[in-house]
Automatic annotation (TrEMBL):
CDD domains: nicotinamidase_related (cd01014). One of its GO terms (molecular function) is hydrolase activity. SUPFAM superfamilies: Isochorismatase-like hydrolases. Transmembrane segments: none annotated. This is Isochorismatase. The lineage of its organism: Bacteria, Pseudomonadati, Pseudomonadota, Gammaproteobacteria, Pseudomonadales. The keyword Hydrolase applies. Residues 8-149 form the Isochorismatase-like domain. Pfam families: Isochorismatase. Keywords: Hydrolase.
Length: 194
């Protein structure tokens, strides 16, 4: 694992009120939000950049349709005034958002990605980040997903969907770690004045 750069960006994906909708079904990793909060606190303390990504759906039936409370950020993860906020309409946070340019303008090469849904927006964004040459880390216990049926109708538990998605990312696109490892790296870099 590379040392944590002084400008490593924490990218928080789609942590909106709509993610609590019962319509989304059963999820895994009930501690994801608290792990994201711990990481966000560490990033704020160290002065590293934070990017908040908000999904704005193109489907009127979505919990993320503009104007609904589902689009709002969760209370514990509200962006601060100086933190970057971007909106996306597709799973990948790099598509039509200016994220790549925003990162390049600030010479940011290292991304730490957290949020939801593991096998959708997290995976899509991490894949693009890796393909674009960024050093991408996905924090496994700061993400979650939901039960999912495959094309044959078989229901897969959220834990399996999550694990397979992270395994796909680990092959070519991202390093997969737990929040504790990132927090340790952050504290070490902070002590060393990095």
């Amino acid at each position: 694992m590379d040392p944590l750069a002084p400008n490593a960006a924490l990218v928080i994906i789609d942590m909106q009120k709509g993610m609590h909708s019962p319509a989304l079904g059963r999820r895994n990793n009930p501690d994801a939000e608290s792990n994201i909060q711990r990481l966000l606190s560490a990033w704020r303390q160290s002065g590293r950049p934070v990017v908040h990504v908000r999904h704005m759906s193109r489907s009127p039936t979505s919990v993320f349709w503009p104007g609904q409370t589902g689009c709002e950020f969760q209370a514990a993860l509200q962006p601060l005034a100086l933190e970057h906020v971007l909106e996306k309409n597709v799973p990948d946070a790099f598509i039509h958002t200016g994220l790549e340019r925003w990162l390049h303008t600030r010479s940011i090469r290292q991304l730490v990605i957290v949020g939801v849904i593991t096998n959708n927006s997290v995976e899509a964004t991490a894949r693009s980040g890796g393909n674009l040459g960024f050093d991408v880390t996905v924090v496994s216990d700061a993400c979650y997903t939901f039960n999912q049926s495959d094309l044959s109708g078989r229901l897969w538990p959220a834990e399996d969907v999550h694990a397979l998605s992270l395994s796909n990312l680990a092959m070519d696109y991202a390093t997969i770690v737990e929040a504790g490892a990132i927090l340790t790296r952050s504290r070490e870099a902070f002590r060393e004045g990095v």
